[in-house]
């Protein structure tokens, strides 16, 4: 059985960058499940699996199709209970929901502002037009206006991660002694930045950066297979 994960890329298929897709890439590796990754540009997403989803990631596991990164993680946990756990119980699911909310509400917009023009430049012409129109509709401002705030966001970025920093003072991963899906959620956001706009603007001795480096090394350095921008 061939397991297929559809992810997001620009002109270069070997540089997938979606934070949500990276969560699932590491989740599959965590479970020890083989898969084929098929990166797609924005404008190809509607044709994936006959229009199954408007967004990626999409996982095909045999006859089963699953969309949305969190739903895929839940599916993997239920379908493969004999493999290493992504949640370690209901508490881990609750932790992951919190980290997902923190990441999307506190981290994603600053990363968007720092990375948005870099992402635009990674796309081909058709996807650039789609990207401009869809970001304007979603965010209410042209991408140049958002990018103009990128340097201010870069200067403030480390402070936004203080709750994570304090947590990592007590344990090497958000999941405790070893990573859980909660770690992959936040990793996805920082990997998104690393692949599109360069490494997160954190000091070398920052506990969060040290955690991120540990995550890059997980699963035989899977996160490092794509070089930083």
Automatic annotation (TrEMBL):
Residues in GST N-terminal domain copies: 8-84
Any coiled-coil regions, as ranges: none
Domain of life: Bacteria
Stated name of the protein: Glutathione S-transferase family protein
Upper classification of the organism: Bacteria, Pseudomonadati, Pseudomonadota, Alphaproteobacteria, Hyphomicrobiales
């Amino acid at each position: 059985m061939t397991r297929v994960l559809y992810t997001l890329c620009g002109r270069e298929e070997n540089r997938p960058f979606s934070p949500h897709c990276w969560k699932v890439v590491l989740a599959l590796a965590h479970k020890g499940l083989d898969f084929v990754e098929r990166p797609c540009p924005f404008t190809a997403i509607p044709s994936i699996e006959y229009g199954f989803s408007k967004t990626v990631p999409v996982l095909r596991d045999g006859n089963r199709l699953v969309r949305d990164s969190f739903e895929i993680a839940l599916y993997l946990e239920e379908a493969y209970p004999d493999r290493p756990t992504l949640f370690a119980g209901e508490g881990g699911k609750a932790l992951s929901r919190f980290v997902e909310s923190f990441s999307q509400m506190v981290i994603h917009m600053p990363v968007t502002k720092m990375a948005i023009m870099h992402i635009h430049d990674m796309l081909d012409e058709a996807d650039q037009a789609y990207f401009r129109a869809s970001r304007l509709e979603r965010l209410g401002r042209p991408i140049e206006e958002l990018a103009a705030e990128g340097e201010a966001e870069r200067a403030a970025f480390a402070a936004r991660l203080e709750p994570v920093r304090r947590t990592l003072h007590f344990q090497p991963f958000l999941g405790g002694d070893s990573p859980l899906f909660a770690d992959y959620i936040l990793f996805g956001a920082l990997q998104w930045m690393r692949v599109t706009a360069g490494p997160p603007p954190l000091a070398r001795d920052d506990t969060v950066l040290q955690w991120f480096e540990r995550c890059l090394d997980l699963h035989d350095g899977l996160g490092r297979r794509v070089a930083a921008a």
